[in-house]
Task: inverse folding
């Protein structure tokens, strides 16, 4: 089982409606359905992964996140998920806005580019970081909008996004006091649970 | 024709006629006092009757969806690529039912049947039937077969519209709704093509206002034209280029040929058939006009034109699905210009709005609208995968 699932499941209400953007092979939705009896829908563009979703009995819609989510009604899902995909979309800001429109709350996970290894890679080697959790070269990476934990904090502040919980872990999704002490430097993956700031 | 039948064929099959004496009130208000339905089944119904799949046919289809009627048959049933042992609709596990719809011309009561009130053919007096009427009659067939709930109802094009109607009218009677190459209702362009087809038929001097049987003639020319125009809308531009652009004396490069293969290798400088595509359409049209009934064709196109389940719900399709309880699978095909992917997505959007469980796939295929009848690899695989899950769910 992926360790991030264990963290995310605590933020999801049993029996709630969940939309997973870029749902991959449907493991996350299957896990939530089996453990929390959620009603899930996934979005995916990769044909093989779509078939894997069907094989797991997961409802999946072939749709490109970069072409918008106009076909989804406002506030039609309890939770909208985006795991390890934010950095690969054309307009992360617009997508997060759409997530907030569709979902009552949202969960985003992304690789933290501010991690010390990434910094060291660039600072010492003078080359774009390649690691176990970001295994791509600059020319073939699907990741076109890297950000750091601090970047995302600023983004949430600027966009009036209410961060409910922020968890930072290493790439094996292990949490520790050590990482929490200096999240932007030490964490490899950031997991945010947020909602629209209620109007005052 | 095969000397031996393929191993993954349902084999030789015999249709069965079911008589219904209970009157059926149609959407138009007219009543069919009694009627027959011609039905074919494949596979075995399990003890708790949970493994039945209903296949709904499209415009020119019938009950003969798979297998062969005799060893002399040149072709198997219309969806043989999908139905059989080990095929996506696996008859080793599912009990598959397909029927000729009311108004059809393959054994079920229709314009070519005898009207008990007059003792002669119904002809143009056969009432206009709608998708809703078909589904009501299919529900009675399910009752007769003892099937309380279908594991799945499956159909493409006009067949997909019947699936949609099932999900709306009989929400508790199906577990899965599988719709292929479908639209929520016809567009003006779709209706326009249907009207050209109807005009072709009614303008044929042999049509005799639908009473051609009394005159011992058939409006073959009109029906042929109707089929030709229909056929054009079933194929894509790319499919036609491929089909009619393989060899050419004038243009060596097939890619530049645009499907303009000549029939006799040279232009005739007359008004006879010059190009292969013309010859193909003539052949298809002629063959169709010999086997299909013109009045049935008129009825089927009207059923298409009238289909719009949103009319009872202020034009909001999502409200129509409010009571639906099944899971949905929809697939569209990239080069289908009759019901293109965006038309299928309208249904997906309505289902999402209604909060239903829906999967949607857009299949890359060159064959246009007809792709749903053909063994497109990803399409076959997705259908297989989906139905495997259904199989486990119902213990088939």
Result:
């Amino acid at each position: 089982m992926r360790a991030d699932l264990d963290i995310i499941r605590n933020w999801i209400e049993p029996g709630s409606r969940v939309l997973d953007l870029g749902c991959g092979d449907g493991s996350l939705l299957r896990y939530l359905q089996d453990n929390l009896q959620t009603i899930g829908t996934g979005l995916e563009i990769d044909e093989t992964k779509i078939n894997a979703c069907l094989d797991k009995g997961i409802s999946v819609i072939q749709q490109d996140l970069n072409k918008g989510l106009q076909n989804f009604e406002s506030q039609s899902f309890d939770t909208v998920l985006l795991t390890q995909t934010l950095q690969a979309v054309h307009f992360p800001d617009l997508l997060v806005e759409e997530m907030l429109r569709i979902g009552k709350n949202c969960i985003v996970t992304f690789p933290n580019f501010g991690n010390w290894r990434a910094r060291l890679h660039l600072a010492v080697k003078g080359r774009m970081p390649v690691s176990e959790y970001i295994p791509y070269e600059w020319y073939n990476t699907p990741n076109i909008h890297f950000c750091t934990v601090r970047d995302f904090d600023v983004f949430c502040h600027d966009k009036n996004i209410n961060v409910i919980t922020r968890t930072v872990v290493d790439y094996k999704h292990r949490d520790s006091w050590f990482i929490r002490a200096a999240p932007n430097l030490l964490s490899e993956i950031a997991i945010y649970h947020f909602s629209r700031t209620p109007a005052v | 024709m095969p000397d031996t039948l393929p191993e993954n064929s349902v084999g030789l099959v015999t249709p069965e006629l079911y008589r219904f004496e209970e009157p059926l009130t149609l959407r138009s208000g007219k009543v069919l006092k009694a009627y027959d339905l011609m039905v074919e089944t494949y596979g075995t119904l399990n003890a708790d009757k949970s493994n039945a799949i209903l296949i709904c046919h499209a415009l020119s289809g019938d009950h003969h969806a798979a297998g062969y009627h005799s060893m002399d048959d040149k072709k198997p049933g219309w969806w043989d690529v999908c139905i059989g042992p080990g095929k996506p609709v696996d008859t080793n596990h599912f009990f598959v039912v397909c029927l000729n719809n009311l108004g059809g011309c393959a054994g079920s009561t229709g314009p070519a049947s005898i009207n008990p009130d007059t003792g002669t053919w119904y002809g143009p007096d056969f009432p206009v039937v709608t998708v809703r009427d078909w589904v009501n009659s299919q529900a009675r067939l399910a009752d007769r077969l003892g099937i309380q709930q279908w594991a799945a109802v499956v159909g493409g094009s006009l067949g997909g519209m019947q699936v949609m109607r099932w999900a709306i009218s009989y929400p508790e009677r199906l577990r899965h709704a599988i719709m292929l190459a479908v639209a929520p209702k016809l567009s003006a362009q779709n209706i326009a093509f249907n009207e050209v087809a109807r005009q072709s038929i009614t303008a044929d001097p042999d049509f005799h206002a639908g009473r051609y049987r009394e005159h011992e003639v058939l409006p073959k020319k009109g029906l042929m034209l109707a089929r030709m125009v229909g056929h054009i809308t079933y194929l894509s531009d790319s499919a036609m280029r491929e089909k009619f652009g393989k060899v050419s004396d004038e243009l060596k490069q097939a890619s530049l040929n645009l499907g303009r293969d000549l029939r006799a290798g040279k232009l005739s400088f007359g008004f006879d058939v010059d190009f292969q595509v013309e010859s193909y359409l003539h052949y298809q049209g002629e063959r169709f006009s010999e086997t299909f009934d013109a009045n049935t064709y008129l009825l089927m196109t009207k059923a298409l034109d009238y289909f719009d389940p949103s009319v009872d719900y202020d034009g909001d399709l999502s409200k129509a699905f409010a009571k639906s309880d099944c899971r949905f699978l929809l697939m569209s095909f990239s080069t289908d210009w009759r019901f293109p992917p965006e038309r299928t997505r309208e249904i997906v959007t309505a289902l999402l709005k209604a909060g239903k469980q829906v999967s949607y796939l857009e299949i890359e295929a060159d064959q246009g609208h007809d792709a749903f009848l053909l063994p497109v690899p990803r399409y076959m695989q997705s259908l297989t995968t989906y139905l495997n899950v259904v199989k486990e769910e119902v213990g088939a």
User: Anything to note?
Assistant: Chain B touches chain A at residues 327, 329, 345, 348-349, 352-353, 355, 357-362, 378, 381-382, 385-386, 388-389, 393 (CB under 8 Å). The radius of gyration of chain B is 21 Å. The first strand of chain B starts at residue 16 and ends at 20. Chain B has a mean pLDDT of 95.
